[in-house]
Amino acid sequence: MKKEKERNRLSETIGDWVISIVIAGCLAFLIRTFLVELYVVEGKSMFPSLEHHERLMVDKLSAYFKLPERGEVVIFRFPKDETRDFIKRVIAVEGDTVEMVEGRVYVNGKRLTEDYVWKTDPVGANQSSYPKSIVPKNSIFVLGDNRNNSEDSRYEDVGFVPKSLIKGTAKFVFWPISEWRGLPAQTTYDK
Length: 191
Hints:
Blueprint: H1 2-35, E1 36-40, E2 55-59, H2 61-65, E3 73-77, E4 85-93, E5 97-101, E6 104-107, E7 110-113, E8 130-134, E9 139-143, E10 161-162, E11 166-175, E12 181-182, E13 188-189
Antiparallel strand pairs: 1-2, 2-11, 3-4, 3-11, 4-9, 5-6, 5-8, 6-7, 7-13, 9-10, 11-12
C-alpha cells in the first residue's frame, strides 16, 4: 500500500513536470513567433550604430499592426531570398518622396541630418544617388548606416520593402552586456 502511494505520487510529480514543460514550450513558441525575438547582427552594413555579432531584442508585435516609423531599425526578409533576414534603418515610409543626391538623403524635400551614418569613408565614396521616388503604399525605404557596405533600397534586389516582409523593429542591444543600449528612432532634418 505504501509503495502504491509512492508510485502514485511519483506519477503525479512526473505528470506535473511534463505539463509544465509543455506549457513553457508553448509559451516560448508564442512569444517568439508573435511578440519578441532575439537576433544576431551579421555584417557591417549598420556600423557604427550596430556591430557585427551584437545581439538585439526585436519587437515583432507592432509589425502586425503598423509600418515602422522613420529612423527605426528594422529586421525584414530579403525580397529575393526570404530565408535571409536583413537589418536596416527606415528612411521613408508610404507616401514619402525620397531621393539621394551625392550621398545626401532628402525626404519630402528636406535633407536628413544623419549623425548615425559611417562618415570616415574614403574620398569620393558614399556619393551614391537615387532618383526622386514615392514610397508605395504599405512599404518602406531602408538604408544601412554604413552606406558603402549595405545592400538596401537603393538596389533592385531590395527596393521598397513591403510590410509583409517586415519581421519587427529592433528595440535594444542586449549583448555584449557592456554595450547594452536602446535603439530609438533617429530622424532629424537640416534647418
